[in-house]
Every structure is written in C-alpha cells, then in structure tokens.
Amino acid sequence: MSIKAPKGTKDILPDEIVNWQFIVQKANEVFNKYNLKEIRTPIFEDTNLFERGVGDTTDIVNKEMYTFLKSDRSLTLRPENTAGVVRAYIEHNMYRESPPLKFWYFGPMFRYERPQAGRQRQFHQIGVELFGVQDASIDAECIMIAVEFLKSIGLDNLTVELNSIGCNTCRTEFKEQLKKKISPFLNELCDDCKSRYEKNPLRILDCKNENCNRLFEENNLKENLSSIKLCPECSTHYEKLKNYLNELNIKYVENPFLVRGLDYYTKTVFEIKSESLGSQNAVCGGGRYDNLVETLGGPHTPAVGWAMGVERLNALIPQENEALIDFYVVSDNQKEAVKLTAKLRKMGFSAEFDYNTRKFSKQLEKASKIANYAVILGEDELKSGYYTVKNLKNTFQQKMTFEQLITIII
Ligand code: ATP
Ligand code: MG
C-alpha cells in the first residue's frame, strides 16, 4: 500500500509555490515599511507554554494540540506562534530595549481539527506582534498593516470586524448576562459550550457548532444581549482606536459579539473576513493581549498582534503560472550542451538542457513548455559558430552570435 500525506496536511507543489512566494514577498515589502523584523521560533515548544499562554479552557489546548513525550519532557507542535514569540521576547530580555518592538513571522502551525475546506491540521500563518505600546495608535497601526498587506496581494474587498472585549472587570457583568440568557437551553448545547458556560462563557459566542448556532438564533441570543459595558479606561481606548481608524481611512464594522478563540485577548479584538470563503470565512484574527507577557513570566508589557491563514489567502488570489526559464539548449552534442548551459547560467540566466539527448523534436517539445527561448546547437551551428535561437512564444527563429544571443533577454 502506498503511503499518503497524513490527513489534514497538504503538499505544496511547485506550480502552487509561486503564489506562496508572492504572498511572502509582499508581506516582506509591506512589513519593512512599518519597521517590523522577522522572527523564527521553534516549531515545537514546551507544552506548558501553550497551556499557560493560549489558555487551558481553549479548544486549541483542550483538544487540538499535537503533544508528545521525549525523555519525560512534554513537547507540543506549535498551534499558533504568539506564545512562542512572547517566550522568545522574554527569554532574550527584549523588554529592555526601547519600545516598540515589532515582529512578523511566517510558518506552519498544527492543530488537530476536523479537516474541511479552509481547515487543515498543518496550515500556515503569517502574523505580526507589536510589543510595548499602550496607546490605541498601535492597535490602529496593527490593523492597518493587515489591511495594507491584504491590499498588496490584491484583496481589498474584505471586511474588518472590530470589537473591544475590555478587561476582566468589564466582562463580569456581560458574562452573567450571557449565562442567564443561555441557561434555559444550556442542556441542548454541545459539550464544549457546556464546559465554556462554567469556565469561560464569553467563548460560547465563538462556537462553530451548527446546532448551537441554530439554538442561538432561535432564542434570539444576540438580539437580547447588550454589548460588553466597558470601564472608562477600556472605553476611552476603544474610542481612540476608532478615531485613529477613521483618520487613517480604514473601514471597519463593529461587531459587539466578536470574541476570539484564545484566552489572552484584552480590549481590542478584530477579524478580517471574506464573503467568498464559505463557512471558514476568517482570513485574519487578532487583538490586544496586555497580560500575556506577564502571564509567561516577563514584566508587564502591553502588546497587540494578528495572524492570517495563508491557505485561506491563497484560496482568494488567482493562481499565478510558474515562471518560465530563459533558455533551453537543444542539442545532440552532450558535451557542447553542458558547456553552453553552464556558460549561460554563469552569466546569470536560467538555463536547462536535455540530459538524455533525446530527438530534437522531443527536446523542442519540452523547451516550449518550460522556457522562453530554445538555443539550437546542431552540427551546422557548431561549425559556423552561430546559434539558431527560437522564440518559443511566437516560434520566430533566427541565427545569431553568442553576444547577440545574450542580449535578447532584457
Ligand atoms: P477559526 O475561527 O477559523 O477556527 P481561529 O479563531 O481558530 O480561526 P486563529 O487562531 O486566530 O484562528 O488564527 C488566525 C487565522 O488562521 C484564522 O483566521 C484562519 O485564517 C487561520 N486558521 C486557523 N485555524 C486554521 C486551520 N485549522 N486551517 C487553516 N487555517 C486556519
Ligand atoms: Mg479555530
């Protein structure tokens, strides 16, 4: 029996990689403008980091982690990268530097979820984390970076949903209100919601279970619920953020029921959604996490960030074609073909030849698939010192010297 890629994982084949490289290149360009620095943290970390960082009442920690033991040490493939970046920030005493410290990352994440369109077990995220600023101007910048990056890859018709979930004090009343509204039909909700009800009722609003969502609708849960009443500090912060966004011309829609699936958020939360993605419609999720650095053993440090699912971005942008190489050397003289190909590559061109010296027709067929020009090097050409160069797009063919040949590619 042949071995297949594990369920929920995908090979990214060469003709798809063009889009991936495009996305990362644009990320690099946009993030540079904002003075973000790339950071790469390990793919696996101490399990403890995620239990403390992501939160032990989250789906991620409770059900979705790839955890394994090595020499009695419990390790976990990272389900997200914020905890890892915060760990590195603390470990390398980066809080001693003058703020802000601004990072971005790109890499695979692992969650044991039910695979479906837009949901994999190994998937990729691009994310940013901005440390050390309490003012709402950095929340606005954080959202602006996301919007500008999405625009740079051609996505400018997405919706930014915004909310403030305040601090713990602000949420107390809302949680009680929510629990009261839910208690009459609590028994009909999924097991996850039942345990959320006890441990973290806010998260019920983020449930993906269809039956639960139907029950919320039927019981008019959202219609009857007033939004989180923010304390003066959180409220000022939220108002300032909205003002900044208006000044910066960033469009957003307020969603008072937007909560995020991770425990560490405070104040600002946001998601960026696309209508054309079906039910897995969020491409970006983020928010402020002012307590996480402290929770993980560092000094109190305000921070804000976001992560995007790269597979979901990919699903929204048109598939680019693989780039063609410059020259394909067509010859029945293996030695001369090797020499000419090497010479072209040395000059900086991309070049290929037929390692198997097949018939000219076969070589030309391959050339027309992968190259812009075929350089034909037969007996005549070797004798005369002229190369026959064929433009594979329009099949126009011409004899020329090597010096002429290398000027046809601009
Ligand atoms: P969702 O609500 O879709 O489960 P999430 O709230 O769990 O997302 P985050 O942890 O905030 O997502 O991750 C940010 C982004 O990463 C999501 O908006 C999504 O684009 C992407 N993402 C999350 N989980 C997956 C997955 N299993 N497969 C593919 N992309 C994912
Ligand atoms: Mg999720």
Question: Which terms would index this structure?
Answer:
410 residues; alpha+beta; BirA Bifunctional Protein, domain 2; Rossmann fold; 2 domains; eight-stranded mixed β-sheet; binds adenosine-5'-triphosphate
Can you walk me through this structure?
- The chain is an alpha+beta fold and 410 residues long.
- It folds into 2 domains: 237 residues, Bira Bifunctional Protein, Domain 2 (BirA Bifunctional Protein, domain 2, 2-Layer Sandwich); 81 residues, 3-Layer(aba) Sandwich (Rossmann fold).
- 37% of the residues lie in helices and 22% in strands.
- The protein is built from 15 helices and 16 strands.
- The strands form 3 sheets. The protein has an 8-stranded mixed beta sheet. Strands 13-12-14-15-16 form a 5-stranded mixed beta sheet.
- Strand 12, helix 12 and strand 13 form a beta-alpha-beta unit.
- Helix 1 runs antiparallel to helix 5 and helix 5 runs parallel beside helix 9.
- The longest helix has 20 residues.
- It is elongated.
- The model has no long low-confidence stretch (mean pLDDT 93).
- Adenosine-5'-triphosphate (ATP) binds next to strand 6, strand 10, strand 11 and helix 11.
